[in-house]
Records
---
Amino acid sequence: MNFDDKVPIYYQIENYIYHEIITGTLKPGEKLPSVRQLAVDVTANVNTVQRALSEMIAAEMIESKRGRGNFVTMDTTKIDQLKVKLVTTQLERVYEQLHALNLSDEEIVTSLQHYIQQRGQAK
Amino acid sequence: MTNFGKLFKVFNRSKFATVNQLMLIELAVIAVSLIWNLIWGNLSQMSVLGTVSGWSGLAYLVGFILIARRAENAFTHDTYRLIPAKDTTFYLANLVSSLVMFLYLIALQVILHLVGIGIAWSQISPELDGIMRLRDISSAELAKGIMLVVLMVLALFILALTTITLIHLTVSATNSFLPAAGKRVVDAILYIVVIVLVVRLVAFFFGQVNQLMTTLNLQGTTNMVLPIIGMLVLAALESVLNIFLMKRWVETVAN
Amino acid sequence: MTNSLTMQGVTYKRGMKTILHDVDLTLAPGKIVGLLGTNGAGKTTLMRLITGSAKGKGAIAVADHSSEAERKQHVSFSEQLRGFAGNVKLNRIVAFYETIYGDFEAERFADLADFLQIDTELKLAALSKGMKEKLVIALTLARRTDLYLLDEPFSGIDSMSRKKIINSIIQWKPENATMVISDHYVSEIAPILDEIVVVKDQTVYAHRQADEIREEFHIGVEAYYESLYERGNDHD
């Protein structure tokens, strides 16, 4: 995994695993690899991976079962919420940047529609 | 912590290989010499003993240098100095292993000589008997004489090793911590001390051996006990200094 | 838990020239620490002081052991095998390590050698630079101890070997052990570091958590490190 050196690594690992959960690579209730294995997979420090997992456990996206490992939450509404949250974050960024270019709300919607159409044709 | 036995083992390993290599070379040289004799038609019953005696002096000298080099190598290389052991244990294990490996070299030379003597026995045994009878020497006295010479050689060997180490460690310590001018002064003093020491010791040793050889006066050998003790005491003092230097000043070659 | 390393007021001079002065450094257990600094800043010297290979003044303790002999027992240093002759076979070197280090685990070494693709039938002189560095890493990590010191493990090594070495560090570092990795090129190891220690002006100039730098200054470890040289003043 390629990290952005400017962003805290634990945060990037968190996002990476969230991404896997939302896209279904990690299914609800599925067991996560061991901390060390995750560290090797993403090429990061065990402590950093542990910190990312702790944050996710605190957010109840992951459940830690003593002696058995970490599991993706079974609560699908939580996963849906997470998806909404991540989508919102992305949209927020686009919205703010387009606003900074002095686009009105309508103009943003039309330009987005136009863009999606173009992308569709390109495929 | 790594104990004496394990240190001794690893110190032996490298020196053992070195001595064996030297022996192979010596055997090859002896073989070539014998073939040379054969070609020129000089091969006789005495040839093996003569050739062995001729070359073994050089083998001792080269063996000593090689063993000393391996021993000194250990003091300034992380490969050895990182071994978790006290400096005293490290130093003694290294010294004892050098001594044992030198004994091993002596044993190999003795075997070669015995082979030579075995081949030449019918020729030299009457002569030997004659000498023994003439000088009125019992075999017990002869054994004692040989023992003393061996002890003398070993004491000299130990002293030579501790002295080489002392010089090496002093140079190493001053190189690290003294400015250039100080280094030159220490080097100059060391040169003088070493030259005096070597000349004195070699003169003394050959004096003793010479007396022994020419006169075969074994009574004179009792004079050798005191110098042997003296050399060992000096070696012990040098060792104390060496260990102190190791502890406080001697660094390894940078990684 | 006891600290993996404590250095207090450590000063080192060579021929009247000060190389390091007043070094105070404490490392907690279980960390991966990047030891950064320009070439000749004193990174190697700092490691050599810890192992006792260089003789300085001041107090040094590794896992609470302060005598030199005991420190050596608790430190595994990436020694470059200079004490061996070139014609020695690698399995002889492995046997040497096994004899002298009570904490050297043959099985760990076998796993590491397998992972790093080291052929122990080869002779030392036959190894390429990258292969030799892999061997050194495998020998260093095969000991199970408290403090690991890797001195510039990536210098002159191709990117494939570098990745393998980084992976073996993650995989084989014992949980409570601390590992110090010195490097003058930061970006390749930045993601695996918990902390960085910068050696500059003959002393420990900065000691910070890596993610703290990213959170506080919104810059990368490398940019932070470079900023210490550009501005000459600290971020504190």
Note: The beta strands of chain C are 5-14, 17-27, 32-36, 57-62, 75-77, 147-151, 178-183, 195-200, 203-209.
---
Amino acid sequence: MLRYILKRILATVPVVLTVAVLVFCLLRLTPGDPALILAGDAATETQLAQIREHMGLDRSLATQFMLWGGQVLQGDLGTSLHSGTPVTAMIGSRVGPSLALALSTILLSTLIAVPLGVFSAWRRGTRADRAVMAFSVLGFSVPIFVTGYALILLFAMKLGWLPVQGYKSPSAGLVAFGTHLLLPTIALSTGFVALIARIARSSVLEVMGEDFIRTARAKGITERAVMMAHALRNAAVPIITVIGVSIALLISGVVVTESVFNLPGLGRLVVESVLARDYPLIQGLILLFSLVYIGVNLTIDVLYSVFDPRIRY
Amino acid sequence: MAYLNAERLETRYGLGRIGAALACVAAMAWAPAQAETLTVVMASKLTVLDPVLTASHQTRNHAYMIYDTLLATDADNKIQPQMADKWEISADGKTYTFTLRDGLKWHDGTPVKAEDCVASIQRWAQSDKTGRQLMPLVASMDVVDDKTFKIVLTAPADVLAALGKPSGLPSFMMPKRVAQTPVAQAITDYTGSGPFKFVQKEFQPGVKTVYEKNTDYVPRKEAPSWTAGGKVVNVDRVEWVAMADPMTTVNALLGGEVDYIETVPFDLVPMVKSSPDLTLRILDKMGYQPMYRFNQLNAPFDNKLVRQAAMYAVGQDDILKAQVGDPEFFKTCGAVFGCNLPYSSNTRADMIVPSNVEKAKALLKEAKYDGAPVVILHATDIAMASAIPVVMAQQLRQAGFNVQLQAMDFMTMLSRRANRDVPAKGGWSIFVTTWHVSEIMDPLRNYGVSANGEKAWFGWPTVPQVEALRDKFLVAATEPERKQIAEQLQDVMLDEGVAITLGQIETAAAYSKKLSGVVESPAPVFWNIKKASE
Amino acid sequence: MSTSIHSIAGGAGITPAIRKRPRSALVRTLSTWPVMAALAMLAVIVLAAMSANLLGLADPMSINPMERLKGISAEHWFGTDAYGRDVLSRVIHGARISLMIGAGTAIAALIPGLVLGVIAGYFRAADMVIMRIMDGIMSVPSILLAIALVAVTGASLLTVLIAIAVPEFPRVVRLVRGLILSLRDEPYVEAAISLGTPTRVLMMRHLVPNTVAPLIVQGTFIFASAMLSEAIMSFLGVGMPPEFPSWGNVIAEGRMYFQVRPELILLPGLFLALTVLSVNMLGDAMRDALDPKMARRV
């Protein structure tokens, strides 16, 4: 196992390298001139050429890549083409809201979904089961921005219980942090509750069908104890897996929530920087994301083999 | 904050009057003592901080906060002194002498000197269109003493209008060391002499910009008028917040989370109007002019009759109605240089204002149009012009054109626009863009007045008369002469389809009734505003 | 993009037993009334989509600014949008595009996903390489891919489809690979190998059939999530060309008017939600039916 983990970590290098090259080329070959957005509609060709030269965009692709690669290896992700702020600083200042949103969504979704899923499994086949499942599916049938607008309309505008938008970091007060994060978390959670609830339900059901559960029942243990002590523990694996995958998903899934609720996070930053062709920023962000995906996938694969001994690498 | 409102606390939670009051006081005491802050949502996010490098309106608005200008334009469209105390023009019109007023200081405490102004103008002139046209006429710019400098020309030209224009790269004054940054490089030192200071450590590009009052600023004595006059700051801080979602922006204003929105999306105006706590006002009476250009290098718009057919087919009313909706905010206008402005004209307006499909069809027949595809570039991620190409496509199709509407993001559109090839090889036939009216109101500033073939602005028309007339305008001595030249220019430009206007659009700002003293201006300005306390 | 929330629902952590499925369980599950209702709903929507042109609706692309943002009326059952176009017509014509995106993405993700997943699951050497490539692909944000594709080939149904499908298929690969990994060590596979069964036959006859059930289920989830992703791409301004009446476009265009004319979002949103709901219920039902452990329980 350890050897496998080490091999995977070593394999990170070629993956990140490939992603870096791929994205680098994709960006440079996509039409769009960062000098143009910097200087605007009204700039002359000479001005643009000068700006491009200053940005280093007139050099060959290979040279540009080498220069960037060299910088990265020294821990310098470069500077944003448009604002002149270092990429690491920009990412650092915007990681907070995304992380807060992601963690609170996973927490809330899990807290709601697991009991729902277990309940559904327990009452399998009844109206309650079907209602719960249908209801949770409704949550992710509606586009997130619609859910978001509806929540704002109800809780912020009509009832006035919560703020409309914005992000307050925990250092500005926990109450403010909480109230500003609540609606976006609910909006984003509506999708994940369904996902986690259904996995919980089906994995509990699977476990309940196992022979050892039959044995436990035969021993005379109450249904509740069967659920809690035996079924849940074994059903935990897929649930944990899906939570782990959700973390990776959330990073890409928060774009809309961040736009609707005006949270200055990484999701919006990706969209904005791609639309603006801010190459160093996009490259830095994608490097970060690839490391996260690799880390999460590695963890999942390790978890697979830890909990299911049949799986060997 | 709406949701901490005492009334709400009382009624929602049944706290009783005293309880509610105590709760509010406790909440306020708990929060740190607040400086008087104005929270503003601007129309787009601020990332670039160099107002010479880019003509973007956001950067221009930022510059008005922390920099001051030598001259400025007032509400009567007259040039007024701002940093300058007075100026003198020599009898032959070739020498301009400017004297700075007293007490001007940079944010770091050092005094403003004439050499700073000269350096700033020189950097600006390398980038600004009017500046670039002026420079060949400038023999020298001399510093006479610490407060005086001269601009000496080889032929008379209107230096004042160039230096005092409110938009399209206004001329902001910066310290000499900053102004010596090469023009292709962004400045990194944000010292200015304006009524606000830039709080760099709180700047989050694309998210939030913070300004604080410059307590050493010496405002002029006159009342503020557009970007001219006395700039007295009555708040301690101004925070610009960027918001991606227009609905959330308006809701935030309604909920009291922000004080001021620069541009209310047209269709959300009713929401603002129905609130008793908000003021809706058109602060920028000049507005915007959408316009389009043909690619005259390739078929079918290399043919003058086909161009005219298109111009007849396109009608302003439907386009503006689709883009804006409420007639309160738009008007049809056939003047290339803007309506109700010094160089307005109605010559050939009948070609471009109404939609005349019959005439278009007739012209197409005459031109023997063979169905060559018309590719219209459609940028889908910018709000201000996104409906226009769609309506144009329909109008052109009704006249018999074979139209391909190609959707792409704005950056891709900018790149495609530079492609001179035929549409099949990635070229284009029509592109649409929007200018602020102050940027098109005379032949020198207007980018549409460009028809020198390969070297022209996108579209590359070849109409030597346009170039000649513009050069004549530059050196015209009297206003009536200039007006006449402008009229001739409109005639030629529309006849040849060099640049076609699509009317005029005004946008409204909305702000809390707690704010007073909001100044009408072509660019949003934040001096003079007072905020009543809660 | 949040596409994969839904697609994960199908596959993560489920390893079905490998016995022959009794067909009656499938039919049995599918005859319960909620599932029948879902099938019926889907059938109606598909039918409407296919016959959109024959229903005598207004032209979905015809702009009429004078009529913009008029509410529900006898002439316009769903009202008009910001360009004065008839919303009912756009919703029904849009069904075709949205369903094509859903189905197209599902197919585009499932087939390469199956192929690569089987190879990765079975051949240890290929596993490392393929899975690391999948890691890499997942890191590229869909929006970048969407813009790049649009820029190269112009915005169209195909580019949107590819932009949505590409980040989706690594998950299918992962799912199939996981299945194959646990199947690989089953006794009957060992037996087949020791009998000298050629690899190709082994794969086609023993391994692949056992992936079909979870794949179908996964497919239904991808279908649903693709339609929602399309709405998000339109929201960001990089989706289908705006004149086209896809549900994503109609909803994204209507979002500005949520508090002024909520029906512009709610009505197409209802159709989208019903379709997604039906597809998901079918997926659930199929999983319940095709998973033999469940089948035995019923």
Note: Residues 479-496 of chain B form the longest helix (18 residues).
---
Amino acid sequence: MSSAKPTGAAAGAPVIGPGHSLASVTDQISKIVLSRQTPTGWFIGLGVAMLGVGVLITAVGWLLWWGLGVWGINQPVGWGFAIINFVWWIGIGHAGTLISAILLLLKQEWRTSINRFAEAMTLFAVMCAGVFPLLHVGRPWLAYWLLPYPNTMGMWPQFRSPLLWDVFAVSTYATVSALFWYVGLIPDLATLRDRAKSLVWKRIYGALALGWRGAARHWERYETAYGLLAGLATPLVVSVHTVVSFDFAVSVIPGWHATIMPPYFVAGAIFSGFAMVLTLAIPIRRIFKLEDFITMKHLDNMAKVILATGMIVCYGYAMEAFFAWYSGSPYERYMIMNRMLGPYGWSYWALITCNLLVPQLLWSSAVRRNIAALFAIAIVVNVGMWLERFVIVVTSLHRDYLPSSWGMYYPTVWDWALYLGTIGLFFFLLFLFIRFLPMISIFEMRTLVPATGEELPKKGLHIAASGGSSGEARRP
Amino acid sequence: MSHTTPSAANDAPRTGPWRSLEERAARVAGSEFEHSHAHEHEHDQHAAPRPSNALLSSVEVARRDFLRLMGSSLAAAGAAACTRQPDERIHAYGASPEALIPGKPLYFATAMPWASGALGLLVESHMGRPTKVEGNPDHPASLGATDAFAQASVLELYDPTRAQLVRRNGAISTWSAFLDEFSALLEAQRASGGAGLHILTPTVVSPTLHAQLVALLKAYPSAVWTQWSAHNRDRARAGALAALGGDVAVHPDLSRTKVVLSLDDDFLAGPGGVRNMRAFAAARRARRDTQSMLRLYCVESSVSITGAAADHRLPARPSVLAAVAARIAAKVGVATNALPLAPEHERWADAVAADLLAHRGECAVLVGLEQSPEIHALAHAVNHALGAVGQTLRYTEPVECASVDQGAELRALVGELQGGRVELLVVLEGNPVYDAPADLGLREAFTKARVRVALSLFDNETTQLSNWHVPATHFLESWSDARAFDGTISIVQPLIAPLYGGKSAHELVAVMAGAPNAKAYELVRAHWQAQHEDDDFESAWKRSLHDGLLAGKRFFARSVAMANAAPKLSTPAAEGLEWVLRTDDSAYDGRFAANAWLQECPRPLTKLTWDNAVLIGVATAERAGLSSGDVVALTIDGSRLEAPVWVTPGHAEDCLTLPLGYGRTTAGPIGTGVGFDAYVFTRRSGAWSGVGAKLERLERKHEFAPAQEHHDMERRDLVRTLPLGALDSAKVHPALAHGETSLYPPHAYNGVAFGMVIDLNSCIGCNACVIACQSENSIPVVGKEEVINGREMHWLRIDRYYEGDPSDPRVLLQPVPCMHCEAAPCEVVCPVGATTHSPEGLNEMTYNRCVGTRYCSNNCPYKVRRFNFLAYADLETESLKLQRNPDVTVRTRGVMEKCTYCVQRIQEKRIGARREGREVGGDEIVTACQQVCPAQAITFGDINNPQSAVSKLRSEPHHYGLLEELNTKPRTTYLAKASAPNPQLAEGKGEAK
Amino acid sequence: MAQIFHPSTNTLSKVSIFGGVFFVFGALWLASEINRSSYVTQAGVVRAQPVAFGHKHHVAGLGIDCRYCHTSVEEAAFAGIPSTKTCMTCHSQIWTEAPMLEPVRAAFREDASIPWTRVHDLPDFAYFDHSIHLAKGIGCQSCHGQVDQMPLAWREHSLNMEWCLSCHREPEKYVRPPSEVFNMNYVPERPQSELGPELVRQLHIEGRTNCSACHR
């Protein structure tokens, strides 16, 4: 998808507002974290999110008590909301890795102000995603049997199963994302340590900063590590969702068994991921007065990425329909007709509206520069991508080969509760993050300051300034 | 079985935008099911059943939840790796019973009594607990097979809701207290010669009981014995008397028959159908070189499996049916009056008549018990005219020991009751208060008897109104005897001591005869000893117990001639809709309404579970603006009933079917309040059909639980039909031209390789296999809510498709067990290897390894896998534990299960063979579904052994695999349906598609 | 700016970072060890019984054959537990007064059963068949150990699935001539390495490792 990326982004207009000095950048970002008085809005937001977490806990408790029967799944629809939401969350996670890793290696400077919370978003999204595969099994307390470990049964897991590949793909992804995010945080944690007023906070940030002193050796190692992690994370962007798509592509079910799945899933992931970044970035820059750091430039670029990946996804839809017709298989043909005109037809057309029609508005630069419109479109895309997974999972399963076994799937309140619960968890973590950690990379922002012409006081920063490039140079 | 008491899970409604027009909205699972613990002490022969109340108090429910929680937390402990087993005890015998080898089942011959004659059984017994019922191959009514009812009878035995205590006016009492009062009452009767004494029994087919009653009536000359079974032979009897001057029963010999006309006779269904199905399937078996097969014409008002099996079926409401019968009779030269008939019906009747005439002496006309005496009489005349009598039909004396007009007897009894002349009424089983004709007013008159004593297996409508309720013994726990349809005598021998100290009818009658301590065993034995000619009774008795029947006891064929001319038929002026009453495929006459296995077993043609419905034809429903589930107010002859309709393709138009046996008010937690009670329309005339039904649509919907919701094959090549004589004309699917296209290397099958072939031309869809599988493999029942949610657990289902004109479609039936694919899609996707491939090609399901991802089920093209979404298996009700097959693991919550080809039977036979140093024979292993199948439609064996029956079938030209174009290489395969329609009617339906 | 951490924190942090790895693997190793320990498997743990029955005395001492009590071992899955009557065939003659045997006599008098504690107790989802193992030349001792040397019976092996598989995967290492299966002191007259494979061929031993061999 790098081809789909607006390469002109790095050049052209500055990606930081005018009149900023090193000090002002540092002040403005770090004060969000260090300021004594917390905005009441934050408390309200956190409270709402915590309600969501409460719902999550209730839903999980209820599920473990009664069993999977409390959900709407049945024969033939063995997978429902759990898998839909799992794929949706994993997809959302992608933008973070993409922005931080790939854009870093491609020296897309504009990424700097959004990568930090994009990465955080990735992390939290993967956490939410992780809830589902575990809970959707009939006997969660035995889920560890999916791990290959020496056991008294003298048995290994079944390595041909895509679900097993998922375990590895997702856990690797989670680990690397976490490391990447944390390593990136270290210099800023140090900054916070130095600027924090109370000793407690000094200690906390200090511990997290792992003794960072901004020494040349530190910067040198930092860049190596960061570059390596970026190199590691890049293939993951592709691999994770490819593997997730195998859950479907490897099966024999019409609507699942298609070679288009991997590219189409990856594109979809980035599509939804960027939409989510926009959904978060727009309010945040407003609330925390970060318009100077997250400029129109950023929003514009992200809108372009959404448009591009959106087109790829829609190509996927077109291909699905084409294959169904071209294959000549009555089952495939019935599947696509049933998708469009069957009992769940509404979901297919809603999906087409959300993912194909609405994003076309982004061709117009006027729309791309209209914050409200962007926000609306981003939300629509998120909904659309959820619907896409619903269509794939449910409409393929509910009518497969033997008409005698056809059925319907109706989610129950517990399906919804778990879904909303994870959304609550996501925002809960996000709120904590923006309150206690710098949501924008301070030191990297400072490297952008020279663009507004001011000489550098500190040596460390100079290296940091060239960090991106040196990381780039070392990439194998 | 599940006692569906609502739980908190009910609170979650299923709403939102997910509803679609064609499917009715479903609600979330809510039933409180019994829960699993994984222990079944097969070596513990001391597992005495503890009476367990199935009506759970809230406390009980709470306790269960706690246990459930304990269960999962124990499992969690398992996750923490320390799975230390609790100590287990082995209870050694005091003295080992001879012939019993711990862990090995024993088989005993017995019989299941029916009004229509006994069905001979062999019952499997594990350490003294009967677990599985099989047919007795030596018994003429069974021939080794059984029906669904017999399969489910073992659940009836262990039903925790059975009556367990002697009750006096509902209060707990004792047997001795009963004896005291009862003998006092009898003493009072003795003076008057029993003038106030009435005994009411179902149709008696037990010679011993009959003899006891006769003797009793000698002691009480003025006492009256009345027989009443709802589904009785009164009308056939009347017909025989009218035509032949004597009561005789008609037995077709289908093996010698080329053409059969069924006048609404469902002769393939129920206990009587078992032997017929065998002969019918044999006479229609289509193989490579088969040139002709028995042809069945069926005129019927309702829908039945017999109709579905017919080559030419004519849906006709009763009045039309009579007219058709009359025309056919006239055509074959029986003098009778003609009735107005539509031209297309005339065409049909003429074609049938021609075919019958063309097969003089090789044809038979059968009439259903429900038909009017006139039609019975007419049929006798037709059969005589066609030379069928003595050729394809045998006349014998009827099976009941005392052939009477039960309707008249019951009317007399009610008269006595209303006159207040009944002092002591003894009801020996049966449920007359529920199933007596509604306008007879038995319910009201019943309580006019001064003292009412009821012997009953369950608490029911009759016991509710009785002063004394004596718990009866189940036929699997008491001694008795019974005649089969052909007079064969079977000894009913118990498999287990009475679980709840019940009494048999023999014992109660003995009490009345002044022998309160007589045991059923001695009574039965004495009866036959008295009749035994030569001296060595002991060995004869032993042999008859072993064989399950007394040697040489049969009816002789009666030679009868037409006594009177054929009757004149009349059709009532039909205003409004016509209606027919029918016994139900699951509840029968209400006797099995409380049987969870049968309730959840999809009705053969409607596929409904846990309900009966007013069946209505497609066009009629359209005219009335009705769709399935609409509740209507039904008025017939002044009786009104509100009931939901089910639009039934193939049902006669302008006609309704009202299945009996539901709407029970006292049938335990399972049967109470299920469906509606169609008995309100029964009349003293004994009519099973009539005219003048009025429908009024109410703005209300009833939620049905159909096991199958889509009835069209969507032009997919699932159930094949090929013309007889051209069975090799099936076209090979292009996809198969590619041959082997698999990523993974094929399995090598060097030794035995198990496979199953199902002959769709033989399968009649009687459901016996479904229940047999449930019984053999301890498959739980999930309850109506869960069926609605699409979570039924049957490992073997029978798919039913309609083809052609919805008002009169072809019915295609297809049993679908696991296909045991050689390239199984389920195997590769299981992350933990819980479903794997055996060297013999079994697709193994290992429950204890399964974590429940359900990926296998999603990826199964045949959707034969079943998942325990909730804790379905009851592992707390003691009596139900006794029923379980100790050779099968009980599945817990969150585990996938499916057909295993009865791997426990495979292992038993295979280990036995290998112990002898040989490989298991090609046909040695018999699966539960195969063993029970009355039509012998299922064949199982070694497909690597060219001599095995299954490999021979696999080489038939019309052999094919379901969805074989997917290259799953299924081991379960099918033989296509063969069609040989009457050319004169061929352009209708019935020919190859 | 004042120090917020003591210099020692550096060491601590380094140790904790690397120590973490070892801790995790250590915990896993411990868990697996516990799971194989005799605490969980109860291997080698002498079980209390209602009557202190000594296999050593009856088998080694009196030379009673296994099948005298475990009657169905050759024909059924379950080896069989002797009925009280079996005990009394001898003990109505000898040791008739021994207080130790009172529970047996009591059980015999009341036709009650003696509730023995299972020593070899497989999970209910594992279906083991004694008869086929004997027929295919797996001796009692191979699984039950030197029962003739056990005063009170104990479980010789863990009965873990991996233990079952160790033989099912390589039966040639354990198989013996079927004539020798009841021999408690069997020693192969030829090296097992050549005798084993030969027997496996002769007896058509499959060493089944597919699931339904044991699980149904």
Note: Chain B has four domains: 8-24+713-728+752-986, 167-223+408-531, 234-396, 577-706.
